[in-house]
């Protein structure tokens, strides 16, 4: 009886309630996070109708009305949210030819000698699958050291090259500058731009990184930009590149915010935007990325840098580079990067469990957490990767596909 009810409910769901199953919310964010709930409602209704058809008519009135009450409450909440965000939907569309600020272009896009330290030979291989650009502050010596000792070690993989460049600005502290020069003499992985390293100059740092890649690293296939408080599971990264990203063009993967969904902050935050910038907009009129981790294809580097030469400066680098500049390039695709978390405690709990944590990206605040996470990742991946190099990700992917198929078959016949 239960099996018949399920099958009948699925047929009803597909035929009679298809609009509910395929219903999309007013933004991509709500759709991606709540599509499962829509389908659950759909199957609840389908199951009740199936039971009624099969003779289970002994349900009292409250039980019979429950799924419809759930639907009404859920849709009422969404209508309320839609009403609150209605002003953003009425914002003007993004116009790439409009200057949304009154500031000049970033000097790092046009300066003749933009580098204090350049290190032209970081990309010293013919084929480079991944280049990691780390935006770091001048005095974050311990964080850069943790990167080199853990997931950003360039000698980590054999056959899949990885290179790292730490992008910095300048400092007025002579002792810190001496420390940077000494660090660079030892590791040769510093790129220091000729601008003051500060939060309001993060856009200068981003353009410095793009300019350096465009000039010195044309063989890089993928660029991974991260902040220096991010832990990246490089095993999963290579797996995604080989299995999902490999043949994409003009593609950006990140914690993406769709156009006209993120309200522009105006008061009392470090992300504040003056009222004379984007003055006609309540929300940003383009899709952009949260900047703590962004992966993009090599064919975007030159285009982004060229657009920076003619685009008025905006101090929030993630909005400027992956929103304003990317919005001026034709056929650019933003895609939400899953398996990321910006909460250190959440990621630590995941790695504490006796399983392979599936987070690709985790934020790390405490200095000792990154080496601890790296040990957990190495231990969990011992059975998936060869000891002396990275194993074929296709083999792992095939195994996972087979496992999912087996689980699916078992689920279909469990009744």
Describe the structure.
The chain is α/β, with parallel strands linked by helices and 415 residues long. 44% of the residues lie in helices and 15% in strands. It has an eight-stranded mixed sheet, sandwiched between helices. The protein has a three-stranded mixed sheet with strand order 6-11-10. Strand 2, helix 6 and strand 3 form a beta-alpha-beta unit. Helix 1 (2-15) packs across helix 3 and helix 8 (202-216) packs across helix 11. The model is unreliable at 1-38 and 385-401 (pLDDT under 50).
Number of β-strand runs: 11
Our count of helices gives 14
How much helical structure, as a percent, in the residues?
Answer: 40-55%
Q: How big a fraction of the residues is strand?
A: 15-25%
**Class by alpha and beta content:** alpha/beta
In short:
With 415 residues, the protein is α/β, with parallel strands linked by helices.
Secondary-structure topology with pairs:
Elements: H1 2-15, H2 18-21, H3 28-53, H4 61-84, H5 86-89, E1 115-117, E2 128-135, H6 141-149, E3 162-170, H7 174-187, E4 190-196, H8 202-216, E5 220-227, E6 230-232, H9 234-245, E7 251-257, E8 288-297, H10 301-308, H11 317-327, E9 333-336, E10 340-341, H12 344-352, E11 361-363, H13 369-380, H14 393-412
Characteristics:
415 residues, disordered N terminus, 3-stranded mixed beta sheet, single chain, 14 helices, 8-stranded mixed beta sheet, alpha/beta, 11 strands
């Amino acid at each position: 009886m239960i099996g018949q009810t399920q099958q009948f409910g699925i047929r009803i769901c597909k035929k009679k309630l298809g609009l509910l199953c395929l219903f999309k919310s007013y933004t991509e964010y709500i759709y991606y996070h709540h599509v499962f709930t829509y389908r659950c409602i759909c199957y609840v209704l389908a199951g009740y109708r199936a039971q009624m058809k099969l003779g289970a008519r002994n349900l009292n009135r409250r039980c019979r009305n429950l799924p419809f009450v759930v639907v009404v409450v859920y849709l009422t909440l969404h209508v309320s949210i839609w009403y609150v965000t209605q002003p953003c939907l009425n914002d003007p569309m993004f116009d790439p030819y409009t200057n949304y600020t009154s500031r000049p272009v970033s000097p790092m896009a046009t300066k003749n000698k933009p580098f204090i330290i350049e290190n032209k030979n970081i990309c010293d291989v013919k084929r480079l699958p991944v280049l990691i650009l780390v935006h770091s502050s001048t005095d974050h010596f311990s964080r850069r050291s943790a990167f080199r000792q853990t997931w950003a070690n360039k000698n980590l993989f054999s056959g899949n090259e990885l290179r790292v460049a730490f992008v910095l600005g300048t400092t007025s502290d002579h002792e810190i500058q001496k420390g940077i020069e000494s660090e660079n003499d030892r590791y040769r992985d510093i790129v220091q731009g000729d601008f003051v390293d500060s939060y309001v100059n993060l856009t200068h740092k981003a353009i410095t990184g793009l300019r350096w890649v465009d000039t010195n690293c044309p063989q890089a296939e993928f660029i991974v930009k991260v902040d220096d408080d991010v832990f990246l599971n490089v095993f999963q990264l290579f797996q995604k590149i080989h299995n999902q990203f490999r043949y994409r063009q003009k593609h950006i993967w990140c914690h993406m915010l769709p156009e006209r969904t993120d309200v522009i902050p105006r008061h009392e935050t470090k992300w504040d935007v003056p009222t004379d910038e984007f003055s006609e907009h309540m929300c940003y009129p383009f899709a952009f990325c949260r900047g703590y981790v962004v992966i993009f294809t090599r064919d975007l580097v030159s285009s982004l840098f060229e657009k920076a030469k003619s685009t008025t400066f905006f101090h929030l680098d993630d909005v400027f580079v992956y929103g304003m500049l990317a919005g001026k390039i034709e056929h650019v695709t933003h895609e939400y990067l899953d398996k990321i978390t910006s909460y250190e405690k959440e990621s630590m709990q995941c790695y504490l469990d006796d399983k392979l944590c599936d987070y690709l990206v985790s934020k790390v605040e405490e200095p000792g957490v990154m080496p601890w996470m790296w040990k957990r990742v190495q231990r969990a991946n011992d059975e998936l990767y060869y000891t002396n190099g990275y194993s074929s990700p296709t083999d792992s992917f095939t195994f996972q596909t087979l496992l999912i198929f087996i689980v699916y078959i078992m689920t279909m016949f469990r009744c």
